[in-house]
Amino acid sequence: MNTDINNYIVRKHNKEWQPLIENEIRYTGISVISLKYDEDKKRSTTILLKFEAGATYPYHNHPGGEEIFVLSGEAILENVLLSEGDYLYTPVNFKHSVTTKTGCTMLFVVPEEVEIL
Questions:
Q1: Which has the closest alpha carbon to 114: 41, 55, 10, 52?
Q2: How many domains does the chain have?
Q3: Long-range Cβ contacts of 21-25 (<8 Å, 24+ apart)
Q4: Please, where are the H alpha helices in 1-117?
Q5: Is residue 16 situated within a structural domain?
Q6: CATH of the domain at 51
């Protein structure tokens, strides 16, 4: 294990928002920054997602659950409004979609790949 803390810090000036593309599908109005990449799983497990006003992520399943923290704006999950400072933990195999009227930025911890339904 590398004991230099600098190897584990993500600095915002070193990262740029990228379009969210999963399984060759580009999600309009959604951008991502990877914060933690899991080499064993070959995917990011901690990310920032930025939704433009009106953007939608389709109905999907979380085989490993997820954690969401709203950094700014508002998001709607299962007809429930989440606002800046709100935290949501979804249990294993929880299904939902995400949309926003105003736009938002959220921190996601997603231990397993989502399954679009």
A1: 41
A2: 1
A3: 22/114, 22/116, 23/116
A4: none
A5: no
A6: 2.60.120.10
Calpha distance 24→43 (Å, rounded): 14
Model pTM above 0.90 = yes
Compute the radius of gyration of the chain from its Cα atoms. 14
- CA 12, CA 6: separation in Å to the nearest integer? 14
Has residue 10 been placed in a domain? Answer: no
Contact 66, 90 (CB under 8 A): yes
Report pLDDT digits (tens) over 64-114: 999 999 999 999 999 999 999 999 999 999 999 999 999 999 999 999 999
**Within a domain: residue 5?**
no
Structure tokens given for 72:
């700014």
